[in-house]
Amino acid sequence: xxxxxxxxxxxxxxALAAPGVAMAGSADKEVARxxxxxxxxxxxxLSGRKLSGAQFMGANFTGAVLVxxxxxxxxxxxxNFSGADFSKAxxxxxxxxxxNFSGANFTGAxxxxxxxxxxNFTGAVFAxxxxxxxxxxAANFNGAILTGASFRGSQLLGAxxxxxxxxxADFREAALRRLVMTGGRFAGASxxxxxxxxxxxxxxxxxxxxxxxxxxxxxxxxGADLSQAKNLSQGQLNDACGDSRTRAPRGLSxxxxxxxxxxxxxxxxxx
Length: 271
Hints:
With 271 residues, the chain is mostly loops. It has 2 helices and 9 strands, in the order αβββββββαββ. Strands 1-2-3-4-5-6-7 form a 7-stranded parallel beta sheet. A two-stranded antiparallel ribbon has the order 8-9. It is elongated. The N and C termini lie far apart (60 Å).
């Protein structure tokens, strides 16, 4: 079925409920006039389309291709975009609530000041994506690729970043309270002035990561490898707690989570 026909079918249910909404012509690339999308349009080719301000409510756009699409201030409510390609798309100030973006590709995309609540980003790719100033609550980034992504000044509250690859990512001045970072790779990432209060950093690695003035108040660093982290102070480690597997930079020690014993984990020989 032609793409335009599938778009119209996807839109039909909402169009009947809201007859005042305009539809785009078959050769019109200005899809922004399609204010709301519902139904299904799996695998739709929408690269370069202008969808700013569009609403996707309960829609199924699995595997859709939206490379370079203009989706500024778009709204996604309970929609399914698993496996969709948003590379180089602009989703600045977009609102995402209860939607599924598992396995989606956001390489080089812009999500500045985007708001995401209860979103599934499992296995999604955010390589070199711009998420500065974004606000995320209870989002699941399990296994996501975040290499070179910028979260500077963003809020990631209660998010799950288990097993992520965030090498070279920028988390400067970000609010990362209660962030779950278990098993994540954060080599070369910057956490300068970030708030990691209550973060769970169990088993994560931070080779070359910059933690200058980052707050680790109540952070759990069991099994974390901080041996080669940069600008990490004893005062910061005193606010966190770890276990016998925790590795601290040479000369620094880690307080056990039992609140009593002190654990010193110098850098291993040859490092």
